[in-house]
Amino acid sequence: MSYISIDVEADGPIPGDYSMISFGAVVVEPSLAKTFYAQLKPISDKWIPEALEVSKFTRAETLTFEDPQVVMSRFADWIDASSSGRALFIADNNGFDWQFINWYFHHFYGQNPFGHTSNNLGSLYKGIVKDTFVNFKHLRKTAHTHNALDDARGNAEALLQLKQDFGLKISLK
After folding, report:
1. Rounded-to-integer distance, Cα 135 and Cα 130, Å
2. Domain ranges, residue 143
3. Is 173 a member of any domain?
4. Of 5, 10, 55, 115, whose CB has the highest number of CB atoms within 10 Å?
């Protein structure tokens, strides 16, 4: 099994009505060398300027990004080539990130290589330290910039730190 840390940037709150603009993925292993990053052309005429502003892209820029069908096929190939056994999805806010990745995979690829499950890094940390009022973000080494690859890398670093500091049993393949 391989944990893959994912982060998504979007121009609105839900897939379909709005678009996933970019995403980053990092296989959680000590080197953090296996990465994937893509920028996707919008699939809808709807967008929220404040949501898009978070990712630091303009609407005009996003219109030049790659076709989502091509990206999702490439991402599926990368997951297959980069993971050992089953790929496990983990994110800081998996409720948000998962909905976009899952929807885009089903819509543009026909299936989701992650299956039907995702893992939430924040909830995992809260359980380990037995405190629902804390967050894990101090465990990141890479700054949280809203570049999807930077953010996925920071979350992968935090998961590795949980393994090191708390003895979390996870597969690093």
Report:
1. 11
2. 2-166
3. no
4. 5
What is the sign, positive or negative, of the torsion defined by CA atoms of 74, 12, 51, 134? negative
- Tell me, yes or no, whether 172 lies in a domain: no
What does the pLDDT look like over 133-162, one tens digit per residue? Answer: 999 999 999 999 999 999 999 999 999 999
Residue 30 structure tokens: 């000590």
Residue 31 lies in a domain: yes
- Residue 15 belongs to a domain: yes
Q: How many of the other CB atoms lie within 10 Å of CB of 164? A: 11
| CATH assignment of the domain containing 82 | 3.30.420.10
Catalytic site includes residue 144: no
**Considering 106, 116, 138, 146, which one is annotated as catalytic?**
146
